[in-house]
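FORM 7B - TANDEM STRUCTURE REPORT

SECTION 1: FIRST PROTEIN
SEQUENCE AND TOKENS:
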Amino acid sequence: SGHAVIPSIYNSMESPQRFEQMISYSFVLVLTCCATVAASGYYMFGSTVSDQITISLHDAPQIDAGEAMKLLTWLMIVTVFSKFSLYMFPLALGIEEIV
């Protein structure tokens, strides 16, 4: 999870006094995305949906399930790269202070 980068985000904000508002909007956005995925999974598979929707998508009889799996795979790859830069930011600041 990305909780370790929250202090770095706070310190790098142009207006740190708006941090709580930014966090609130971020949590609402994440909640909306998670609820949309949950509702979509239940709508597509009903009560037989797996704990991980990707498992259910892999076994889905729909024609577009393969495209959905490709999209999800690329989204996971983008997530990894975007989190890497966020996790490396505090380390880069530390090295910058030393040098």
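SECTION 2: SECOND PROTEIN
SEQUENCE AND TOKENS:
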Amino acid sequence: KEAWQLEALAAAADAEPERTGTQGPGSRPSSAHQLGAHHAGPPLGPLEGELLWTVRQMDVHRKQIQIHQEQLSILERRHAELLVAVSSRTHSLNAGRGSPTGSSMSNT
């Protein structure tokens, strides 16, 4: 890909914070920023351009992973809450039937 295409792809990725997340205060600078996200030097060769694009894509995916980990954590907490609620309700129903174990399969 041409260097301008790589820049356009990277800019598009940076312009979608709802997909890639945003860095919070105190976050380390991305690898792309460390490499010079706004390249002001001589034109990039094909390898350097691809390297910059690859680093930017890695940063995008790291941000996506962070967002997914946060979403997973929220889902895991809700899952635990639901298990407790279902367990409490099941325990209450079984206690009302006089079953000491709460199991309806204790006919053996």
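SECTION 3: OBSERVATIONS ON SECOND PROTEIN
The two ends are 72 Å apart (CA to CA).
Residues 20 and 64 are 5 Å apart (CA to CA).

SECTION 4: SIGNATURE
Preparer initials: ____
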